Amino acid sequence: MKFIHLTDTHMNAAGKQDGLFAKVHMADNVRKVINHAKESGIEPAFVLITGDLSHEGDAADYAYIRTVLDECSERIGAPVHVVLGNHDHRGPFREGYLMEAPSEEPYYYSVMYGGLRLIGLNTQIPGDHAGELDERQLSWLSEQLKEAAPQGTIIGLHHPVLSIEGMDGSHLLKNRAVFGDLIAGTDVIGVLAGHVHSNNVGTFRGICAVAASGTAFAGERADPDTYAMVNAIGYNVVSVNAGEGITVRTVELPTGREELVRFPIALLAAQH
Ligand SMILES: [Fe+2]
Ligand SMILES: [Fe+2]
């Protein structure tokens, strides 16, 4: 079994794109990725998007994102599951994307695919760029993991648990130590995140952990004090190897990698 991991799509409704990244059509990037996966013959069980679906979107933006992702789902022939990132907003997401009453309730869930369990968690804190799992999700997760899934569990969340070279700890899940204690020794075989806009793979409590680059743009250190955002489009294909963990294959689509904007590193947290 395999699935596709996308992240940081940063989409907004047509004509409302954030001026900083106006040279990139974020929704088209997602369509390009799905077309590339389809033409490559990848038949995923599902597509997981680990947050920053929108760039400070309102309900209309989320309704647009829903139509784009519904198209993508039909094209690739698989459902799309999403989690929320720091640039997302719970109320507008619930209203525009889930088509339900707006509320600030965290969005998290568990679904099964042929013995593989996918758990999506909400690390986004309203009004904050940092990420944390609230007590309610931690106790819910602990209950879920009491019973192992036949092919293991994948957890999708926005803020990474891995230390990232060249970035300070403010980008990481704040309470990753508690989260680590909770998943260590369980059936969790992968922790997939985004947020940092670069590809990082490592282990966390012995579990494969990923912070992926995403579809909107990539972040690269330009000099000791400055970060450059460049035009780059990537996605990961994750193969679930029965009883033997996962393999993560990164695919990068051709672009000019032209620089879109530069930020002092001190201001980085607000931009991705
Ligand atoms: Fe983010
Ligand atoms: Fe982002």
UniProtKB/TrEMBL annotation:
GO terms for molecular function: hydrolase activity; metal ion binding. Residues 1-198 form the Calcineurin-like phosphoesterase domain. It comes from the Bacteria. Keywords: Hydrolase, Iron, Metal-binding. Belongs to the cyclic nucleotide phosphodiesterase class-III family. PANTHER family: CYCLIC NUCLEOTIDE PHOSPHODIESTERASE CBUA0032-RELATED (PTHR42988:SF2), PHOSPHOHYDROLASE (PTHR42988). This is Metallophosphoesterase. It comes from Cohnella xylanilytica. The lineage of its organism: Bacteria, Bacillati, Bacillota, Bacilli, Bacillales.
